[in-house]
Amino acid sequence: MNLLIEELKEVVGTVSTNETIMEHHSKTFTYHKASMPDVVVFPKTEQELIGIVAVAKKYKKPIIPYGVGTSLEAQTIPYYGGIVVDFSEMNEILAIRPEDFTVTVQPGVTREQLNQALKQYGLFFPVDPGANATLGGMTATNASGTNAVKYGTMRQQVRKLRVVLASGEVITPGADAAKTSAGYAVKELFVGSEGTLGLFSEITLKLYGIEEYSAVAKLTFNEITDASDAAYQILAGGMKVTKIELLDAETIASVNKQSGLDLKVAPSLLIEVSGSKEEVGLQLAILKEMAGDWTCDLQMETDSLARAKLWQARHDAALSIAAANPGKQLMFTDVCVPLSKLSQAILYARQIVDKYNMHASILGHVGDGNFHVAMAIDQSNEDEVAVMHAINDQIVEFALKHGGTCTGEHGVGVGKKRFLQKEHESTLFIMKGIKKLLDPENLFSPGVILDVEG
Amino acid sequence: MNLLIEELKEVVGTVSTNETIMEHHSKTFTYHKASMPDVVVFPKTEQELIGIVAVAKKYKKPIIPYGVGTSLEAQTIPYYGGIVVDFSEMNEILAIRPEDFTVTVQPGVTREQLNQALKQYGLFFPVDPGANATLGGMTATNASGTNAVKYGTMRQQVRKLRVVLASGEVITPGADAAKTSAGYAVKELFVGSEGTLGLFSEITLKLYGIEEYSAVAKLTFNEITDASDAAYQILAGGMKVTKIELLDAETIASVNKQSGLDLKVAPSLLIEVSGSKEEVGLQLAILKEMAGDWTCDLQMETDSLARAKLWQARHDAALSIAAANPGKQLMFTDVCVPLSKLSQAILYARQIVDKYNMHASILGHVGDGNFHVAMAIDQSNEDEVAVMHAINDQIVEFALKHGGTCTGEHGVGVGKKRFLQKEHESTLFIMKGIKKLLDPENLFSPGVILDVEG
Asked: B316 with B255: CB under 8 angstroms?
């Protein structure tokens, strides 16, 4: 062990076995149990990453890349010990190219840090998974979030990568250009690989112009299915929304309590439209007309402070569920279903949750058919864990039966491996083959996505 | 040989060794030399595809999938003989789901056939590579075309596939849902695999609502770089365009001649905007204001007949270049560069073409930084072929040096293998590994994208 640490110190500036730091990297805020690493390293350069890989190979120790630890399926927990590679010191924005609408960052740059730097150019990076995650982590999990309905997921934003492989080689899949048909989609393979195929050292991303003007509409309904039906009609009617989020009554209630708001406790849709003032006006007029046919309350906000307050409800949702249940850990289901199945899937989820008398909030990115059931459970209480799994199993089962997927945006991690096996029974051998091709010794994030022989 | 044909007749309804049919499948309209298959088969079902694969394996004969033969880099030419699988009889639209904005088709369905069937639902499929290609072929080459600037390429539209592998197994990568983070991007690997990894039997695609209203603007400039600079300013200014196409003066001249039009012979931009009448009005107003700062002529058309006439110029471009050079074959360069390098790249391309006294048209999807130099050459004239290669080499060289790609949308095929090796030197072993994993005997389209030992 000492030899491992000593050799790591020769290749990377900051190497830590401090108990607090190790513990911090042993867990997330979800229900997944903690597991300690052997050591945490804080590289600053690609050269250091190459050095870490060489040492890990020599000592046959796993490497687990770590952004800020906000992933939800234990992607960063070192269940086989090993070297946690914390990217927080690889946080340089290497090149902003406003003339190309692209930026190149180190993987430890966070979403908010990037957007802060882009502001002066009138540009922004749209993918927003809620947490102030790193771009490396977001690339690794193919993150999406509230803006995906308009802008797409990470896989559509990543133009090019630099990746350090298990062999120590550095590869550069992708291109700076807006599109390419040059060979197999190798870049796409790395986006969403959840740390299992290599260490990113640079990420080139697509950027967008900041929209001149935005407005938010809040619609409250009597029933949650009325809200999801309305969401469907909004999308089917061709309305151009930037965000369309659903929060159920229980989510609103805990947000109110947590954040001192007094939002009406009812199933709600939060809708953002953006563009020029005239474009936004056109979209809001369409929405008003549609809402006239529904039994709902409609509140519109164009003032930036009032808008911020409405979005606060959405942003605080995960936090409020945790706050309402001190000492417990969170579990989010993450199914995504075809649009027409959304109301049915949400109704079914609520029935299952009620059947087990579980306290749970339902919220989601309904523009993509993706929703979450958020539950707070005590990870040391076996009964609670069993109930939580029973609920999740049935919600996933329903989604898979209706053409959906077990994960719309959180990834497989450790928590959804058995669902992946079911959902992609026919392609699992391809995933395993790719893992073996790129990481034959199972060095990177073992036990994440796939169980393979190392 | 007879045994191969006899066994194929046992597994597939239509098997042809008719000389005319074989010859039709031996070539395309590009400069690539023809090569005869052993046999052409016309399957109707997935079961027949599985049967064909089994026979091909037994006789160690290549399988070459074929849509309508409009690919530009010899993807369908059977250079090692074997079995050409013509998908023209697998042309059923299996399920239109307007409620989910998706459709499932057999691979032989053409783009126009699909859009005809979708019209009654107010829906359409936006990817338009110009030719009335099959959806199977478009999926295989990751096609894009004029609408990509707004809607993206095939890789963003394909939700799910059914694929018959070399092993005879059928896999179903992807999901019906709008997004998924379930494991590695296997579906993305097959999109753009150019026939080298398997035979598609079903393709599920994303659909869009037909925009209510469209308008086309034609701008003519004195210099081609003025046109590409204007294109850049339009995009950088945040104008929302559906199409933005560049045609140089020579292209316009041959279109006029071929189609009896009298368009002004000058570098031109054709721009389409679409949406509600009000949205289109807003966009056109922005364009008018911008155009006031440029030295150009601006012509707007909202009338559908007048719009059709303007787009005719673009659509006829490839055809007109062929018609102007009877007996010759076509060659299209296909580089794509970062937006800010577009003007420079186009100027450089024109200089190279002029240096060799080649007759060539330049046209392209400038919204993505993708442009084509179209040349007509006699494939049997070695000097002409050498000049064409010299021109292409230098244009690709320039693109690669400036962060671009050797192919924006036509794919690698046989014609761009050496460029792929250069562009993706670091990831080529991954592409080869994937090919070996999925097609260890090099059964599918050998010699396309990669040269591997069979």
From this structure: yes
Of A151, A158, A180, which to mutate for an interface test with B (greatest number of B Cβ within 10 Å)? A180
pLDDT tens-digit map of B391-417:
999 999 999 999 999 999 999 999 999
Which domains are present in chain A? 2-88 (3.30.43.10), 91-209 (3.30.465.10), 213-319 (3.30.70.2190), 325-421 (3.30.70.2740)
Residue A172 and residue A165 in contact, taking contact as beta carbons nearer than 8 Å: no
CB contacts < 8 A, A to B, total: 253
Reported ipTM exceeds the 0.90 cut: yes
Q: Share the mean pLDDT of chain A.
A: 94
Closest CB from A170, A193, A409 relative to B179: A409
Q: Are B127 and B148 in contact (CB under 8 A)?
A: yes
Which is it for the CA torsion A309, A141, B139, B394, positive or negative? positive
Is residue A46 pLDDT above 90, yes or no?
Answer: yes
- What CA–CA distance (Å, rounded) separates A182 from A184? 7
Predicted pLDDT of residue B454: 44
Encode burial over A275-287: b for 16+ CB neighbours within 10 A, e otherwise. bbeebbbbbbebb
Closest-CA residue of A relative to B450 is: A183
- Percentage of the residues of chain B whose pLDDT score is greater than 90: 82
- For residues B161 and B187, the answer to whether their CB atoms sit within 8 Å is yes
A430–B171 CB contact, under 8 Å? yes
**CA of residue A91 relative to chain centroid, distance:** 19
pLDDT at residue B302, as a whole number? 82
Which residue positions in chain B have pLDDT lower than 50? Answer: 454
Give the three-state DSSP class for B33: coil
Residue B313: its pLDDT value, please?
Answer: 76
CA separation (Å) from A351 to A383, A392, A399?
19, 12, 15
> Which of B108, B130, B55, B275 lies closest to A276 in space, CA to CA?
B275
> Is residue B430 left, alpha or beta, with left meaning phi > 0 and alpha meaning psi from -120 to 50?
alpha
The total number of residues shown for chain A amounts to: 454
Phi, psi (rounded to 5 degrees) for B169: -70, 150
